[in-house]
UniProtKB/TrEMBL annotation:
One of its GO terms (molecular function) is beta-fructofuranosidase activity. PROSITE patterns: GLYCOSYL_HYDROL_F32 (PS00609). Residues 340-478 form the Glycosyl hydrolase family 32 C-terminal domain. It comes from the Bacteria. Belongs to the glycosyl hydrolase 32 family. It is an enzyme of class 3 (hydrolase). It catalyses: Hydrolysis of terminal non-reducing beta-D-fructofuranoside residues in beta-D-fructofuranosides. The lineage of its organism: Bacteria, Bacillati, Bacillota, Bacilli, Bacillales. This is Sucrose-6-phosphate hydrolase. SMART domains: Glyco_32. CDD domains: GH32_ScrB-like.
Amino acid sequence: MDRNSDLIHQAEQTVAEYKDIVNQDKYRLHFHLMPPVGLLNDPNGFIHWEGRYHLFYQWNPFKTSHGAKFWGHYSSSNLVDWKEEKIALAPSEWFEKNGCYSGSAVEDNGKLKLLYTGNVKDEQGNRETYQCLAESTNGTDFKKKGVVLRLPEGYTAHFRDPKVWKYEGKWYMVIGAQSAQLEGRAVLFSSNDLEEWTIIGDVAGTNLNGLGNFGYMWECPDLFQLEENDILLVSPQGLKPEGMLYQNVYNTGYFVGKLDYQTGALEHGEFFELDRGFEFYAPQTTVDDQGRRLMFGWMGVPEQEEDKHPTIAQHWIHAMTIPRELLFRDGRILQQPVKELQDLRINESTLTDVKVDPQHSFSKLEGSVYELQMHVEEFEAQQLEISIKDSVQLRYNKKEQVFTLERVSLTKGAPEVRQCQLTNLTKIQVFVDTSAIEIFINDGQEVFTARMFPEDVSNKSIVFKVGDGHVKGSIQKWDFE
Ligand code: FRU
């Protein structure tokens, strides 16, 4: 057996060995994509190709820690029902022996082509990086074409995660990098055939374009247009917490600007953090045939309490977010759950004219795996609190204009919070899975993503409380299949 078939065979054996344990885990997710076994991280190669959505993912089938990554593969016709496909890439060749790292997919002459980073480390841990190409005619079997780009001068070997797109008949690729001066960078390249690449220049980075110190390495860049704007989505490493911002070990956000395709430079404004929760990183977008800009994020953060997740005992860790559509309003990205998720709704409860006051906390609804929405009509209280599964509290403090997500910490120590400034609350939409929660505020103006591990994952009351005054509105809840 050749090395590639051998690795794939070993991965399949491992899946077969542990899949029953994973499937019986109470924390197994119902509507979020998760690994069959092992560790899942970044979404890769997200594309709508020949009528199906394809989502690949960074995958270590053998362990619940990081290692020589494979590309796992799911596909779907509707973003809701996903099929587990054959393993797309295994780290079998010299140029990727320590991992087929993150990358993206494009359609070219009827073929599905993947550009990804080949990660190589020697015995001393010294890194090499190769940008590689693989292609498929049927969308499931990939043929490796090898290295298409080597490390250019001026950057360290922290140079990875190519995102490719076509603009005015030419291919462009943005890569996450670290400059020789150890500054985070996004770098632009161009090509006519996806095989020969020419460097154009730095798009943005630490100490460029008035940015100042903004991290020592930028991972997983994505560059795309939303309305008239060029958006650079990127995950910088090395940002220091700043008030309510950048609270996770590594963070993700975006710049809005105008890209100069001649020089590669993005004239941009400030950095906006994309998701305000505990677990969110390395998102990737694509456009589908309806022209929607869709995004998946990794519901995890590298090196952030990864050894504390209780699912490790059941041989799996991490998940994807739900797919979100990106819209643009008032200079900012709005993130909205894709409408297809409505197909999962069953058992609707609709309650109008609900009034929560200090004498009447509202707890008529309960659920285990569900979507919850509240449209706020009157907010005449200092603070509204919504408790979910005894392990997560959502609070909006109107006086301080602060939204808070509080959870029981993964180490089961003191409660911990993530927060953002919010001038008013008109709508809150919450997606609750067995061990995950995603909160969309005011139609995606702010989003919080987090894992949660309640002892009891069964039906639990959803409790709305105020300490003074009242909050009035309508509440809807749907169980999810
Ligand atoms: C981000 C990341 C990428 C890399 C991949 C390896 O989470 O570190 O930069 O390509 O994960 O799995």
